[in-house]
């Protein structure tokens, strides 16, 4: 079939696949370094307990066959090695069927992790990586022309990411419609970055321009992805520019980077590097791609209907393989930033003058003099869940008390997730959690005190707790 492949996208495919492999590498590395404290055998939400409780059809995973921390580590580090090899271009040096199997194994390994990750893996960028990773299996390698149908499916995925995010905003918080959400967002977002203080202090007129530009790029530009070239490439460039702005203004794991990767797949590579003649695909490959395309189009019905629904759901999966999903973010923007501050004391008997010392997290605000750091695309799962817990105790019901218990035990795997442990010699006798309101300091406060944040005590979140 002459229409099946298009040489013009050889460079776009190469960049997409290698950049996607880099995102996979970060995702597997995040899993390898954090899983023991979060979902390990002695973690806050142990995988073995989850597997006993949830049917296999609802969360298919290779860990159904066997689970141990050693096996999970093997899976995660294997994912790192396979991803790194793909970044280096290994798939283009292999026969087509072997390259496809390589990408499929990578997808299966990460699917297995996500499907047992529970609350810690309940983020939209997990399903986005899985959906993009599944499509990458059928993109082929440099032995054949890039298949047009898969390229269009990648645009359909990018369209749902951007348009879904735009609709959830317009349908949600009134401040998106009156262009004032960014008066608050840079301060109240889950994990500010080193430039967030400066973004927050931009003039209000600039914030209104930010919001208006966001609506244009998320609600109008996605339709242009399906236009002829070079219009589609220009639309992809606008998406990339918007995502880079978000990269500078905060920490959103690999969401922004993966969206950029998807946008690059829509760019006509011949505009940059000219043509690159490649042979056509074998018949068996064409049949497989046609079948997969038909399957994904059928599965797209519910996500498409969700886009049109007044009760639009964001970041929702419709099947346990996460093949076609719904996306969206920040339909509501907080006006006030609340933070949980976790403290411990080594005094056995509590009294009015008891000295409490704070645990410092790697990414979330704590010490008011500490400049927020850049971690994305690396994902600090505990820090993100702490942001949700501050919004409502319901978000922390399943894991927060186990977290406190491990602090009281001095669990090494849990303490590795933190920036500073104030009890390096022995665990504390008591741990408590208090809720504070945080706001960015003004320019004058910053000069006078050296602090990036100002905080005010709100209430007790967890009373002093000790091991029974």
UniProtKB/TrEMBL annotation:
Boundaries of every Lipase maturation factor 1/2 N-terminal domain copy: 121-270
Signal peptide: none
UniProt entry keywords in alphabetical sequence: Endoplasmic reticulum, Membrane, Transmembrane, Transmembrane helix
UniProt-listed GO biological process terms: protein maturation
Membrane topology, from the record: Multi-pass membrane protein
Domain Lipase maturation factor 1/2 C-terminal: 323-462
Superkingdom: Bacteria
Family the UniProt entry places it in: Belongs to the lipase maturation factor family.
Name recorded for this polypeptide: Membrane protein
């Amino acid at each position: 079939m002459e229409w099946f492949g298009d040489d013009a996208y050889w460079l776009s495919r190469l960049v997409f696949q290698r950049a996607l492999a880099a995102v996979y590498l970060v995702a597997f590395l995040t899993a390898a370094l954090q899983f023991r404290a979060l979902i390990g055998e002695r973690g806050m939400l142990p995988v073995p307990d989850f597997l006993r409780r949830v049917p296999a059809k609802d969360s298919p995973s290779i860990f159904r066959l066997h689970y141990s921390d050693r096996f999970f580590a093997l899976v995660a580090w294997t994912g790192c090695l396979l991803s790194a090899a793909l970044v280096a271009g290994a798939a283009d040096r292999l026969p087509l069927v072997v390259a496809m199997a390589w990408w499929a194994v990578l997808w299966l390994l990460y699917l297995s992790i996500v499907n047992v990750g529970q609350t810690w893996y309940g983020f939209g960028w997990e399903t986005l990586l899985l959906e993009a990773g599944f499509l990458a299996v059928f993109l082929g390698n440099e032995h054949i022309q890039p298949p047009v149908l898969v390229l269009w499916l990648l645009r359909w995925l990018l369209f749902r990411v951007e348009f879904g995010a735009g609709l959830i905003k317009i349908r949600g918080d009134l401040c998106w419609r009156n262009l004032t959400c960014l008066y608050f967002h840079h301060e109240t977002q889950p994990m500010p970055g080193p430039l967030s203080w400066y973004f927050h202090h931009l003039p209000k007129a600039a914030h209104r321009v930010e919001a208006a530009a966001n609506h244009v790029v998320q609600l109008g530009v996605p339709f242009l992805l399906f236009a002829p070239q070079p219009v589609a490439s220009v639309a992809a460039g606008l998406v990339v520019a918007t995502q880079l702005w978000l990269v500078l203004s905060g920490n959103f794991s690999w969401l922004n980077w993966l969206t950029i990767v998807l946008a690059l797949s829509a760019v006509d590579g011949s505009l940059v590097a000219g043509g690159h003649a490649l042979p056509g695909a074998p018949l068996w490959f064409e049949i497989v791609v046609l079948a997969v395309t038909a399957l994904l189009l059928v599965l797209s019905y519910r996500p498409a209907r969700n886009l049109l629904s007044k009760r639009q759901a964001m970041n929702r999966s419709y099947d346990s393989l996460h093949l076609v999903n719904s996306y969206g973010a920040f339909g509501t923007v907080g006006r006030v930033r609340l933070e949980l501050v976790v403290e411990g004391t080594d005094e056995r008997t509590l009294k009015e003058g008891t000295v409490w010392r704070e645990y410092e997290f790697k990414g979330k605000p704590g010490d008011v003099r500490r400049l927020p750091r850049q971690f994305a695309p690396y994902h600090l799962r505990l820090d993100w869940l702490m942001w949700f817990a501050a919004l409502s105790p319901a978000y922390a019901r399943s894991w927060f008390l186990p977290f406190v218990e491990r602090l009281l035990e001095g669990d090494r795997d849990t303490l590795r997730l933190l920036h500073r442990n104030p009890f390096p010699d022995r665990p504390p006798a008591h741990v408590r959690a208090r809720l504070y309101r945080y706001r960015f300091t003004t320019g004058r406060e910053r000069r006078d005190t050296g602090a990036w944040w100002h905080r005010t005590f709100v209430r007790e979140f967890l009373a002093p707790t000790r091991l029974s």
